[in-house]
Amino acid sequence: MGAETPLIRKLQKFVRLSAEDERALDKLVQERIQKIGGREDVAREGDNPETLKVILSGWACRTKMLEDGRRQILSFFLPGDLCELNIYILREMDHTIAALTPLTYAEITRDKFEHVTSQHPRIAQAFWWDTLVAMAVQREWTLNVGQRTALERISHLFCELFIKLDVIGRTRRNRCEFPLLQSDLGEATGLSTVHVNRTLRELRSQNLIVLRGKELTIPDLERLKEVAMFNISYLHLEHESQELDPNEIGGRAAR
User: Fold this and answer.
1) Residues with Cβ < 8 Å from 196, sequence gap 6 or more?
2) Cα separations (Å) of 92 from 44, 200, 214?
């Protein structure tokens, strides 16, 4: 497993983890594994959140719902994503986490999490970087709904999801899995299903995307980025590029 797991592949973009760090992470997410079906709830608003949850396989989302049933998707969770860091400090959930596909996730107790992060400072640093990036993504989503056109919103979301999947090794050249329904896209971008359908037709007509079954193809990612006005910097994927590899022997002082 090691560096091949989605969680480690993603965290390595923020902090270079040692082999010992990777083993500790692998152990952490293998102790309490849960599985549920697609379109089921992982945790509901009002529940007592006792554990941190990490997605191992499948897609999920964070949602809020009005009393009349209207729902807003606030974020998507992909393999390797934490549903919320330190969620267990809350008395009750203020949102719902729902599976979009069959889902496998790890539950991590507060004691286990705090033990690992205290013993492995770089793991703690990586988790905090992951939280900061999640906040940056949330700001980008707010901008998406508030200022971008329908075409820009959908294009931006496609770019973001494709790049995040690429980071964890879940793309095949210009293709990736894409299990979202048009209703999911609408709830994530503040658009009606009719408007989403019209926008997808426009994207297809310009050869910006191909959607077949549950697979997305982006023929020219740079072109799609231009349409979306997508600036990858908010994902902070190159934070650790200039820092020391903890697995190197001797370090900087020996050079």
Assistant:
1) 150, 154, 182, 183, 185, 186, 189
2) 9, 38, 34
The DSSP result for 93-146, as a single string, is -SSEEEESSSEEEEEEEHHHHHHHHHH-HHHHHHHHHHHHHHHHHHHHHHHHHH
Question: Cα–Cα distances in Å, from 54 out to 76, 106, 195, 201, 203?
Answer: 13, 5, 33, 35, 33
Separation between Cα atoms, residue 27 and residue 130, nearest integer Å: 19
CA dist., res. 30 & res. 24, Å (int): 10
Can you tell me whether residue 34 is helix, strand or coil?
A: strand
Distance CA 34, CA 239 (A): 32
Q: Distance between CA 114 and CA 108 in Å, rounded? A: 10
Q: What are 194-236's pLDDT values in tens digits?
A: 999 999 999 999 999 999 999 999 999 999 999 999 999 999 9
Element (H, E) at 24: helix 19-28
The three-class DSSP label of residue 216 is strand
